[in-house]
Amino acid sequence: FFFFQAEDGIRDPLWSRGLGDVYKRQIQNAKTSLASKVVAQNADLLAPIAVDAVLKIVDKDKPQNIDLRDIRVVKKLGGTLEDTEMIEGLLLGNNKATHLANGPTKITDAKIAFIQFCISPPKTDMDQSLVVSNDAAMDRVIEQEKEYILKIVRKSADTKCNVLLIQKSILRDAVTELALHFLAKKGIMVVKDIEREDVEYICKTLGTTPIAHIDQFTAEKMGSAARCEEVELGGTNKMIRITGIQTLVKTLSILVRSSNQLVLDEAERSIHDALCVVRSLVKKGSIVAGGSAVEMEISSKLTAFAKELTGINSYIVNAYAQALEIIPYTLAENAGLSPITVVSELRTRHANNGEKYLGLDIKKGALVDTFKERIIQPTLVSSSALTLATECVRAIMKIDDII
Hints:
Blueprint: H1 2-11, H2 22-34, H3 43-57, E1 71-77, E2 85-87, E3 89-92, E4 106-115, H4 135-158, E5 163-167, H5 177-185, E6 189-194, H6 199-206, E7 223-232, E8 238-245, E9 252-258, H7 261-283, E10 287-289, H8 293-306, H9 312-324, H10 326-334, H11 339-352, E11 358-361, E12 366-369, E13 376-378, H12 379-397
Parallel strand pairs: 1-9, 4-5, 5-6
Antiparallel strand pairs: 2-9, 3-8, 4-7, 7-8, 10-13, 11-12
Helix pairs in contact: 1-8, 2-3, 2-7, 3-7, 4-5, 8-9, 8-11, 10-11
């Protein structure tokens, strides 16, 4: 109750502070989350990508049900962070089309099937050997293998499938060179070695159903897309891009480029942080002052409220207020400033001068009006952190003894 009472006092004037429309506020919040990252200099590019990505997948009727797993971040070495882009479609960063027998690498009006069975000769369940004593028997074995593979390829082609995604197999070859030759003759683009952990996302995005056996291969289990192609990212660096997907499910991909693996990993982490910030804004459409301003204002209000109480309640509320000062203390310490000086000045000016938006700007190394400097953060971030911390302390205090 104390927290929400203080939070309301600092949150009320948000809409009259001249921060522009909702979209601009979301971008500014995303930039704030990127300000302390290695990729801070590219915040003007990455922040709009993060905002647009979340807004593309959100269901306006159910904004609370935002699943960030619907946004796939694909990392590829080469290029620079300026080459990072959002793609409304599916990217397969670790796969490429097979080029055997001049198989197609670009398909328009794609009919896509995802198969989990192998297009290769079957093997026995036990370790056995087949002894071939003459050339005629060897020819029969080869002919039977050819007929077995050809039967699968013909049935696949009969469904009008022109793009085949094949799951990686650990038991035997998922697809043989002979099968790739027949598929190329039928004009079917083949992408093999799809990892098991990618199956759910790919099928959800494409609207396909995994096909476990050739007898279950039907047109109803396939997905459709305007274009499926293999794209080159420089040198031998290739990937599969599928766009114009005709499904009701909202998913998309973000392609992150960099010439350094460390920067690439940092960019992925930073984009995820920005996505989480935007998701918080969509769930609860309000913002508060950043730079520890909100924590110090709550602390100031709770300190004043504690003076109105008596007994143990006064000590409890006052201790809670003092605990909130660890936020500006840590922020100042990480910025290389004197934490005691910063916290003391913040405490005085919040309590006596009524500067409720006063917070720490680590770039300037000074206390500023955080709204004027556009240092803001989602209300949900602050409220969730304090609520969960309070609940954690309550749970610990209920423990009588540890054995």
